[in-house]
Every structure is written in structure tokens, then in C-alpha cells.
Amino acid sequence: MALGGSLALSACNSREWSEELASSANSPTAQAAATAAGADQSPTTTGSLTGDEAAESPTQTWEGAAQEKGAAPDSQLTITDVRSGWHEDEGYDRVVVEFAGQGTPGWMAPQWVDQATTPGKGDPISIEGQYILVITGTGAAAVPDAQTEYSGPTDITVDGTGIRAAHIDAPFEGEYQIVLGTDTQDFRIFTLDSPTRLVIDVLRNE
After folding, report:
1. What does pTM read for this prediction?
2. Could you give the C-alpha distances from 86 to 6, 43, 50, in angstroms and in order?
3. Would you list the domain boundaries of the chain?
């Protein structure tokens, strides 16, 4: 799983996110850490997905993926982790964004674009993939919790046949941005609880 580009951060943010590129969050070190933390990966799942993220999602449909969904009222969420993986037998790639804080994340209607840019500054984002999917998330805290805020790479190389790469921008005025470089345009978005997570799946190009 991986992410990329320069960030436009709100002045309220407690610190700048790391802007260095990571070759992959699926490195031996990352996977060893996930295993040590009790990751429950199914035989058909690779990457750094854990627990219910590594399980099939039979109740989630692919219809209506472009629709928006509002965040829970008074949500004040801080992004704490980003990870990805492949459901090879089930035929899709997955990116997961984990949160701490109050509420449930929402998202505006996802957009397919020719060029993604960073919020605020409008710098171009370079990302691998035939298509570019931009998801603007809602429900983020104006001032993220500095103790739990995500400080990992902003560019992630997923290297699947559905999702090629991912990029995440830190919250800006209560919204955060996820950019996916994909090789297909069939996707779905939903949330998981305990912990609070936003999940994005893209069908693999087989």
C-alpha cells in the first residue's frame, strides 16, 4: 500500500506529515509488525490488511459507488493509519484509512479526473494508473489529535491490478483527500467499526 505528492496543510494542523516516498507499506518490516500486532490475514489476502479488513465483504455491493454519504453529526476524527492489500480470489484491491476520535467519516461524491491536485495549494499530484479517482472525505477534526495523527508516507504503492497507487492529503478545513491511481473504474466505499475506518475497494483488472 502506498501514497504521494506534496501536502496542503491547514494552519491548525499540529505538524506537517511526512512527504518522503515509501516504496511499499507491504515491506517485510511492515508485514512483520502487522503479524506481531495480531493481524488476521486470510490465505487469499496479501498486503497489510488486518482482521475484518482481510475478510470478504459479501454484504457490500458495487452499486451506487459514486454516491456521497455524510459524516455523522459533530464528527471530530483524526487519521491514524493508512494501509492496503489485495483480495486476490475475491478479485479486488483495498485501501483502508483508520481514524480515532468522535463520529463516523463521510465522503463527497467521488470524481474521476484527468489531474488531481492538493487541497488549498493546488499542486499537481503525480500518481501511477490508467485512471485517477479523487475522494474528498468529511468529518475530520479541524485540529487533529497530535498524539495519534498519522505521520506515515503520503504516497503508497499498492501495485495491484485494480489500485496501482494511493495518495493521501492531511485534513484541510475539516476535509481530507484520498487519490487513487487505478486500472479499472469499478469501485465501492464503505465504513467499518471498532476501530473506525473508511474502506475503498477497486475491482482487479484480470
Report:
1. 0.78
2. 26, 11, 12
3. 2-56+66-203
